[in-house]
Automatic annotation (TrEMBL):
Organism domain of life: Eukaryota
The name this protein goes by in its record: Protein sleepless
InterPro entries linked: QVR-like, Sleep_regulator, Snake_toxin-like_sf
Keyword Transmembrane found: no
PANTHER family: ATILLA, ISOFORM B-RELATED-RELATED, PROTEIN QUIVER
Any one GO biological process: regulation of synaptic transmission, cholinergic
Length: 124
């Protein structure tokens, strides 16, 4: 067997791991020993897919192909992907990118302002 690395292995699709893959618990059942697959996995990978503002997180074991760090790509039909490779145990646990969180908070705040404004107009 090759070098043993432990990674998180999950997909945030509602039909798979769902939100538990986005918000990894401190002691996660998604942690696996990548040697179990016997595929010479020596790295962990995290993929963030954004298709029409539907964001998916995929965490998995990876081979040594590619360079360490993150790389972003935009595909056809404006599909955005961010790939991150790392070589330490459980290193693919990084949270959702801050740009996504910031956008989510901004939309939430804007929605609150609209609701409050409409409510105030109905009162007066």
């Amino acid at each position: 067997l090759g070098l043993c690395i432990k990674c998180y292995n999950c997909n945030s699709s509602p039909f798979q791991s769902g939100r538990f893959c986005v918000e990894l618990p401190r002691k996660s059942s998604f942690e696996i020993d990548c040697d179990l697959f016997q595929k010479n996995y020596t790295r962990c990978r995290k993929v963030v897919q954004n298709v029409d503002d539907d964001v998916r997180i995929i965490r998995q074991c990876a081979t040594s192909d590619g360079k360490l760090g993150c790389e972003s790509r935009v595909g056809t039909k404006n599909i955005k992907m961010k790939y991150c490779l790392c070589d330490k145990d459980r290193c693919n646990s990084a949270p959702v990118p801050t740009s996504f969180i910031s956008r989510f908070l901004l939309y939430g705040f804007a929605s609150m302002v609209v609701v409050i404004t409409r409510t105030m107009h109905n009162v007066f």
